[in-house]
Amino acid sequence: MRVSDCHNIDDFRRLAKQRLPWPVFDYIDGAADDEITKRRNTDAYADCDLVPDVLAGVADIDTSVTVMGCKSALPLILSPTALQRVFHWQGERAVAKAAEKFGLWFGISSLATVSIEEIGTMVSTPKMFQFYYHKDRGLNRSMVERCKAAKFDALALTVDTIVSGKRERCARSGFTSPPRFTVSSALSYACKPRWALDYLFREKFALPNLDTHVREGTGEAVSIASYFNSMLDVGMDWKMAEQLRQDWGGAFCLKGIMSAADARRAVEIGADAIMISNHGGRQLDGSRAPFDQLPEIVDAVGGEIEIICDGGVRRGTHVLKALSAGASCASGGRLYLYALAAAGQPGVERAIALLKDEIERGMRLLGVSSADQLNSNRLRRRNCC
Ligand SMILES: Cc1cc2nc3c(=O)[nH]c(=O)nc-3n(C[C@H](O)[C@H](O)[C@H](O)COP(=O)(O)O)c2cc1C
Questions:
Q1: Catalytic residue status for 279
Q2: What CA dihedral angle connects 382, 49, 319 and 83, to 10 degrees?
């Protein structure tokens, strides 16, 4: 299978599976406990049907939206994800350049493998920094200052990861950051020599946004669960979130809001956006799908804050359904990570191009010429609960 054989995100998933050592693939593909929430995040879109209008004169369409004051050519954000250098040697640089080429918002993680400063100078398109709230207040302050200096357009505080989800695939494989070459893992790496050579002989793995402060940034191999459980502040509360918003002073987003009550509190502390998200099913298994939870949150705070529907998106029509249900835009991680892992920057570009094409085709077939024409009249839920 080659990149040109990939016609949708699931094809990229298959190619990534072929090309990655299984512990690395399972880190991307896996989720918490029984992985019910991860499956549900995508299945939720299939439980809802679109109702098209025809003869609508849709020769010219505008797929752009404005999110947190910045224009994005598609109603789709590339969500921040950790450790991209491990998936492909081009890592975050490939994703940043692909996002810029298509004019999209994208994010980098606190656990990014390139620095805030490099991303700041590399791309002109809007970028968010995903903020993990560490016990080490010096580290928190330093990340905020670095993001300000690098002119990031938004800070997204992740609120669903005060402790690590129980990711059983990682527990079985012993996946660590950076990958540890033990006798038991060596075989899986040896079976994928192309990945192994790229990993060993190209630029060294680093976590440059953490390495001055915590041992997780120094190259010592630790599990992701151990990073979350030892470094993050489990006592994080609304006061701390509000203080962070003030210290940052720019566009502020809470990533991982799921309840209408929390969405209301996000408005009260002055957040500009919320990402309805369960971290791609990697944290609380059994948590509701963002798309299922969207109407409740739109009823509670629609028009008062921007609402980003995160996770499970694998098709352009999923994005159109999220917009129809009241989201400002959709976002996702695996939709570009499988492609990054499969083929680096050309892979990510092809994945975005496929989604762009699906969004444009879907809008035309629905009879809408701009994203703001999508509303709940376009949707019928099959199982209302
Ligand atoms: C491999 C991987 C790493 C991730 N790393 C982070 C991270 O460092 N910080 C964060 O807030 N979310 C992280 N996420 C969650 C994504 O930002 C996003 O919420 C999730 O991928 C959405 O689900 P989807 O993959 O089905 O689109 C990660 C997701 C994956 C798959």
A1: yes
A2: 50
